[in-house]
Write a structure and sequence with these properties.
This protein has helices at residues 7-22, 31-60, 67-92, 103-109, 121-126, 146-152, 172-183, 201-207, 209-213, 224-232, 245-253, 256-265, 293-308, 330-343, 354-364, 394-397, 415-429, 442-447, 449-458, 471-476, 532-544, 548-558; strands spanning 113-117, 131-136, 161-165, 188-193, 217-221, 238-242, 274-277, 282-286, 318-324, 369-370, 382-384, 404-410, 435-439, 463-466, 480-482, 498-500, 508-514. The protein is 45% helix and 15% strand. The N and C termini lie far apart (52 Å).
Length: 561
């Protein structure tokens, strides 16, 4: 425990005292005032977006007028603004937003399913053919907005202080985490930013100035020692962490031999409610079909883009490519994946520990194929071919968090067999339950509709992208983001709880997004998008202030991609 006499700890202790004093007042803040807080944040983020991206460019070594700047616009300001706007919209409806339900699929699957995307006519125009839904946990109601429902029922709500430990990769994560705790779970927040992306701090302080001024939010900086001090503090009631499983376990059980003893005896170092999102070895399931050359090329670039986005420092980055061994087009597809990875621009490996993680994978798999450029802080895109489909495999149990893609063959050749065996394989042998992608062409899906539906039902993942990178599910806002339910503090896996969830569902199990086999216009996460920066700026402006003219501007920019 750090010495609390050090001024830094005294400052944090004062912040926590302020928050604890204001926690009982937050549940009494009415919906109009809450919507006002969110609108101020939207306006401030939109006004500072250019500076935000410039600060990220300086930290992560990319040009402010290039494609990587467009990526930062999307994952930073745009996704933040969209999440805040959708949450504000739900509050306009008293915290009880309505959602459509695809009744035919609900009857077919025997599950309660709620359609949550498209969320507006604008979404329908811009995200052609894409739809999203939330599956509700079995034997649970599809109720929404628990804390706002309690207002309607005249119940008194208790406040609390939540320590949010922000992630270091995607800059919108701390934004969306803190607003979820405030506006969906009714807790005031102490946000500790990760040193890797603490450049975003000044922009968040401006964006949420009204919440800070009212004593409902504090933002602090520092590394692991600061985090440990905060989590152990008596005024912190709950904790939310986005990061690695090791981070969660260090908080709950401590370090070294003492941690092992505590785990065995069931005596946690910190015994507070903890929610978390802790990453995943994200699989990409490729259902065998009869694809054209253009379709093979498109999906190969799709796979490469799932790997290379944000230099592969994403918890939902593609990490295990699962193919059918007897698929006649297997070799042609793998060749195109190699070609796409080799063509993807190199990225600066800004995240700490990337070189060591990359080295460990090469040590375990000397057959790894280096396909991209390296040097000068750049790690090459790398394919590990023919990893045995066994649970003990290093590549199936360890998240690389760098540009490594493992390839696994299942001993099948046709789509029905693959759809039967692949869910069981990933559920039982691949670490994590956060995210997964499944690629399937339309004709194959039509022929195997029952097997396809059964596969979706069996997949134990919180976010399932059908013909879409699961990163889209992260960004949509109306979908939920978090691990599949069932983890415990002893076996934490990909974490406990969800965030985002702007439709405020009380008992979500998983979110599924369906996209056409070839998305048009070109998806914004593709590494070879030709007009990403202009499209990203236009989309950010649209999310901040939706209008028909804004939709037209986004569409025209996207068509040039």
């Amino acid at each position: 425990m750090p010495d609390p006499s050090i001024p830094e700890w005294e400052s944090i202790a004062r912040d926590l005292a302020t928050l604890a004093g204001r926690a009982p007042a937050w549940p009494t803040v009415d919906i109009d005032a809450r919507r006002s807080h969110l609108q101020r944040a939207i306006a401030a983020i939109a006004a500072s977006a250019q500076e935000w991206v410039a600060a990220a460019a300086d930290r992560r070594r990319f040009e402010t007028n290039g494609a990587l700047a467009g990526e930062e616009w999307i994952t930073g300001p745009m996704t933040s603004i969209r999440g805040l706007r959708l949450l504000r919209q739900s509050l306009l409806k008293g915290g009880q937003p309505r959602s459509a339900v695809p009744h035919a699929r609900q009857r077919r699957t025997g599950r309660t399913i709620r359609r949550v995307f498209p969320a507006s006519l604008y979404d329908r125009c811009l995200y052609l053919g894409i739809r999203g839904e939330i599956w509700i946990e079995p034997d649970r109601p599809a109720s929404q907005g628990r804390i706002y429902r309690s207002d309607l029922e005249g119940e008194r709500r208790e406040g609390g202080v939540c320590a949010v430990l922000g992630a270091g990769n995607i800059a919108s994560i701390p934004v969306l985490d803190l607003v979820y705790k405030l506006f969906v779970e009714d807790q005031v927040v102490l946000l500790k930013l990760n040193p890797v992306n603490d450049y975003v701090g000044p922009f968040l302080e401006k964006a949420f100035a009204s919440l800070i001024d009212d004593g409902f939010l504090r933002i602090v900086y520092g590394g692991a020692e600061v985090g440990r001090f905060i989590c152990a503090h008596e005024l912190v009631d709950t904790i939310h962490v986005t990061g690695a499983g090791q981070t969660h376990d260090a908080i709950v059980w401590g370090m070294g031999e003492e941690a092992a003893r505590r785990r065995v005896s069931g005596e946690p170092l910190i015994d507070k409610p903890i929610t978390s999102e802790l990453g995943c070895v994200t699989p990409i399931l490729v259902v065998p079909g009869k694809w054209s050359k253009a379709q093979i090329d498109y999906q190969a670039r799709h796979v490469a883009s799932m790997v290379t986005h944000n230099a592969s420092f994403n918890c939902n980055a593609g990490k295990v490519l699962v193919l059918a061994e007897g698929w006649p087009q297997r070799d042609a597809f793998l060749a195109k994946v190699r070609e796409a990875l080799a063509a993807a621009p190199p990225r600066y490996a800004y995240y700490p520990g990337a070189q060591e993680r990359y080295g460990a994978f090469l040590e375990h798999y000397p057959q790894a194929e280096v396909l991209g450029k390296s040097g000068g802080g750049v790690l090459p895109w790398t394919l590990i071919p023919s990893v045995p489909p066994k649970k003990e495999e290093y590549a199936l149990q360890n998240e690389a968090f760098c540009g490594v893609l493992a390839h696994v063959d299942l001993p099948v050749s046709d789509a029905p067999s693959f759809l039967e065996k692949a869910p069981r394989f990933v559920n039982e042998n691949v670490e994590g339950t956060l995210s997964i992608a499944l690629l399937i062409d339309r004709s194959t899906r039509d022929r195997c509709e029952q097997a396809f539906e059964q596969a979706l039902a069996e997949l134990r993942y919180g976010a399932i992208g059908v013909n879409a990178w699961p990163g889209l599910i992260f960004a949509l806002g109306t979908t939920t983001w978090g691990a599949y339910p069932g983890h415990s503090r002893e076996e934490i896996g990909s974490g406990i709880g969800v965030v985002h969830n702007a439709m405020l569902f009380d008992h979500p199990q998983k979110s599924i997004v369906y996209a056409p086999f070839r998305i048009f216009p070109k998806p914004l996460w593709f590494f070879d998008h030709q007009n990403l920066l202009a499209t990203a700026k236009a989309l950010t402006a649209l999310e901040a202030s939706p209008s028909p003219l804004g939709v037209l501007r986004v569409a025209l920019a996207a068509l040039r991609g």
